[in-house]
Design brief:
By secondary structure, this protein is α+β, with helices and mostly antiparallel strands. The protein contains 22 helices and 11 strands. The strands form 4 sheets. A 5-stranded mixed sheet has the order 3-4-5-7-6, with helices on both faces. A two-stranded antiparallel sheet has the order 1-2. Helix 3 crosses helix 4 and helix 11 crosses helix 14. The two termini are about 45 Å apart.
Length: about 475
């Protein structure tokens, strides 16, 4: 049954296939010659990928080959070779091979575009040969006339999302068509996700590659919000990221937690599957891959961006405050990162379009306030000493909280993360954010040393001042209406 997921992939690419009976160009000798050249090229690329164990590439080209040559036995054999999980283990294509692949495919795309030009010259309505131009774009053609023709028709090419109306895209991108880039369907990281998650589509910024089963409008909104949050972090807290560091984190956002569980089972290593179970977000540093649910599996009243922004904040903090260095943080003070996560779950764009950490939107702050009101906050001196093993061993209760202007049930709450959120939000908001850069340095040192020093001393505060700031943040957890 290995081909079940692959059938889905075929169905998703078939609308881009135009060698269908009844098309007005189907019997044209030039078209038949072009298809013959396409088959030959796809076979060459498939065989070349097989020799180098670029298995995801071979898998893709086999799928494309079957779309134009449905009886090709070798392509059928390739699609039956690996499971989605096994496709993860293939080699990453070398840059030289990728460059050669892209050039060959782009040439094929250009040939299809030029064939479309002959159809136009014959007097055919461009709408009729639209599939020809779509396939040309799918193979990576960037021929000037093709781009111009698409633009004049009011469309722009968004890679795996296909052609979309420019006016909608410009509105989503804030007027800039260069704000994001879009993978072609044969990009290896994209295929890695599709191998276990056929519904995945994606776009990217300089530092994030988003994969999601959402439609492109929500995908771009999510990516835009993430870019705004990172810009806020860098602008207010600074960055030690090395110039020219082009590492890109793969971010997978699942619209349903059931898909998160299913795909995660294929991607998370065996030793970590127990810890992964029941989560709503997971970061694999070795593969620089972050998986999150769009909505919390138990507390679904949280905002659409909260989980993504919270988990992404920890990745961004390592990138900018520790220059990407540091091992796993499990020692004393690990909770500081959970507090950063809780703070960024409350990141919002205000009425002026400017980013801010809004205490009223930090649900963990509301949890911490409920704990304080019930006399259940951990003594601060004891809290400061917690390591990850101790923190994760604590019970996760269900509490009544006030959030979003309504009473809520906060289910299975991480009490350490809630208290840590009060601590971090307090530091962020005190003195109009003047201590943000010191907080960034403290976080960077935690990544490097896996232990926190005396926080008041490290931040240049009087003894007990940081806790006093946390108490002020707790008072700000007023439960104002969440957007």
């Amino acid at each position: 049954m290995r081909r079940i997921a692959l059938v889905v992939l075929c169905l998703l690419t078939l609308p881009l296939t135009f060698a269908q009976a009844g098309e007005p160009w189907a019997d044209e000798p030039a078209f038949k010659s072009l298809v013959k050249a396409e088959v030959k090229l796809l076979k060459t690329l498939m065989q070349g990928a097989l020799k180098k164990d670029y298995r995801r590439q071979a898998w893709y080209f086999a799928d494309r080959l079957l779309a134009v040559a449905p009886t090709d036995t070798k392509a059928i054999e390739v699609l039956d070779t690996w499971t989605g999980e096994e496709l993860q283990a293939g080699q990453i294509p070398k840059k030289a091979w990728v460059k050669k692949r892209d050039g060959m495919l782009r040439g094929l795309g250009d040939d299809y575009f030029h064939f479309g030009e002959t159809l136009e010259a014959s007097g055919m309505d461009p709408e009729k040969y639209y599939p020809i131009n779509i396939r040309a774009s799918s193979y990576g053609s960037v021929a000037g006339p093709l781009v111009t023709a698409m633009k004049q028709s009011g469309f722009t090419w968004l890679g795996v999302y296909g052609a979309k109306e420019i006016k909608d895209v410009e509105e989503l991108m804030g007027g800039s068509l260069t704000r994001f880039t879009f993978p072609q369907e044969y990009e290896d990281e994209y295929l890695k996700a599709r191998a276990v998650w056929p519904e995945a589509r994606g776009a990217r910024t300089t530092s994030w590659r988003l994969m999601t089963d959402h439609a492109y409008k929500e995908a771009l909104r999510l990516l835009g919000t993430l870019a705004a949050a990172e810009a806020w972090m860098v602008g207010n807290m600074g960055s030690k990221a090395k110039r020219g560091d082009e590492r890109v984190t793969n971010l997978m956002v699942f619209s349903e937690w059931q898909a998160y569980d299913k795909v995660g089972a294929d991607l998370v290593i065996d030793q970590e599957k127990d810890r992964f179970a029941g989560t709503s977000g997971w970061y694999d540093r070795r593969r620089d891959r972050l998986m999150v649910c769009w909505r919390h599996r138990e507390n679904a009243y949280l905002g659409d961006d909260d989980l993504m922004l919270g988990h992404a904040a920890k990745v961004m903090a390592r990138r900018h405050f520790a220059a990407g260095a540091g091992g796993e943080v499990q020692g004393k003070g690990y909770w500081l990162l959970e507090g950063l996560r809780g703070a960024f779950e409350g990141f919002r764009l205000n009425e002026d379009g400017m980013g801010e950490i809004d205490p009223g939107s930090c649900w963990r702050l509301s949890v911490a306030r409920a704990l304080r009101d019930a006399g259940q906050l951990m003594p601060w001196d004891q809290f400061m000493e917690l390591n990850q093993k101790e923190g994760e061993a604590l019970d996760r209760p269900t509490l009544k909280i006030s959030f979003g202007g309504s009473p809520r049930d906060a289910k299975r709450v991480d009490v350490v993360a809630a208290q840590a959120t009060a601590f971090v939000v307090g530091l962020m908001k005190a003195n109009r954010g003047k201590g943000l850069k010191k907080l960034a340095k403290l976080i960077g040192d935690l990544y490097k040393r896996d232990s926190l020093p005396d926080v008041d001393k490290a931040l240049g505060l009087k003894k007990g001042k940081a806790v006093a700031m946390a108490e002020v943040a707790l008072d700000a957890a007023h439960g104002l209406k969440n957007r």
